[in-house]
């Protein structure tokens, strides 16, 4: 079984986001970038399938600038076998990402496509769903457990108020939720080995996909600054402040 995993380069989740002074975008100057955490979870799942002997090959793909090869190398160090880089410096919106991934799916014919449920930079939560629509493959989104059973997949999804289990026939697309697994750290020897693993570089033009944006980013704003808190001396003082200053109780 071949597994294709889509990974995205995003701002490291530990970084405090800065907005550009003209509010045109987030400031990425000298900012640490990393693999989107949900994509790391998807890679971990694919590698575990390989370790169990269920998957025979794990291929990772990203769409992004040259620097996104760092995240592909990380995925290779975590256990993926080879990588595909669709190189572009443009901001590629979800529909175009899904069209490019659909072309890669057509070329690679994977039995299983894994994505994160969302990218933490744009929070779109739609690429997996768009890819399922374009390819006509079955989809299981926000998966918290996935079991491969022959030609079918049991996907448990976290939905409002409980869990839902779906049975999908392969080939299928699954997007990973946070509780699916805890990704491993790459070890130094694996990081060294990853440098020699194959990486195929292509462009959106090579795949025949036009990536011109239909959505423009109008404005980015930081959340309002929170005022510092105070310490109260007693419960009576707290109740008094809640009643008379914050006016949240009567
Ligand atoms: P989104 O729909 O943008 O929130 O992203 C959901 C998932 O789609 C991510 O976790 C990735 O698996 C995949 N994805 C989104 N953008 C890209 C990209 N530029 N390259 C590769 N995969 C992507």
UniProtKB/TrEMBL annotation:
Annotated GO MF terms: electron transfer activity
Keyword Electron transport belongs to the record: yes
UniProt domain Electron transfer flavoprotein alpha/beta-subunit N-terminal: residue ranges: 23-211
Superkingdom classification of source: Bacteria
Alphabetical list of InterPro entries matching this protein: ET-Flavoprotein_bsu_CS (IPR000049), ETF_a/b_N (IPR014730), ETF_b (IPR012255), ETF_beta_N (IPR033948), Rossmann-like_a/b/a_fold (IPR014729)
SMART domains: ETF
UniProt keyword annotations, A-Z: Electron transport, Transport
Classification via Gene3D superfamilies: HUPs
Cofactors that this protein relies on: AMP
Role according to the record: The electron transfer flavoprotein serves as a specific electron acceptor for other dehydrogenases. It transfers the electrons to the main respiratory chain via ETF-ubiquinone oxidoreductase (ETF dehydrogenase).
Subunit structure: Heterodimer of an alpha and a beta subunit.
Name of the protein in its database record: Electron transfer flavoprotein subunit beta
Natural source organism: Vreelandella rituensis
Lineage of producing organism: Bacteria, Pseudomonadati, Pseudomonadota, Gammaproteobacteria, Oceanospirillales
């Amino acid at each position: 079984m071949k597994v294709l995993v889509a990974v995205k380069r995003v701002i490291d989740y530990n970084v405090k986001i800065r907005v550009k002074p003209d509010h045109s975008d987030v400031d990425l100057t000298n900012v640490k970038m990393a693999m989107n955490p949900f994509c790391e979870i998807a890679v971990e799942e694919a590698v575990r399938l390989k370790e169990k002997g269920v998957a025979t090959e794990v291929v990772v793909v990203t769409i992004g600038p040259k620097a996104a090869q760092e995240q592909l190398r990380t995925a290779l160090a975590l256990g993926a076998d080879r990588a595909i880089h669709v190189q572009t410096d443009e901001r590629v919106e979800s529909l175009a990402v899904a069209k490019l991934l659909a072309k890669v799916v057509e070329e690679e014919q994977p039995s299983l496509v894994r994505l994160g449920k969302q990218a933490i930079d744009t929070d779109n939560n739609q690429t997996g769903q768009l890819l399922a629509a374009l390819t006509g493959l079955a989809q299981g989104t926000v998966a918290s457990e996935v079991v491969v059973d022959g030609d079918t997949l049991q996907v448990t999804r976290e939905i409002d108020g409980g869990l839902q289990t779906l049975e999908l026939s392969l080939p299928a697309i699954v997007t990973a939720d946070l509780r699916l697994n805890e990704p491993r750290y790459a070890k130094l020897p694996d990081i060294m080995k990853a440098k020699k693993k194959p990486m195929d570089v292509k462009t959106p033009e090579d795949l025949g996909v036009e990536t011109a944006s239909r959505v423009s980013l109008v404005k980015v704003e930081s959340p309002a600054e929170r005022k510092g808190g105070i310490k109260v001396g007693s419960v009576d003082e707290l109740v008094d402040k809640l009643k008379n200053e914050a006016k949240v109780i009567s």
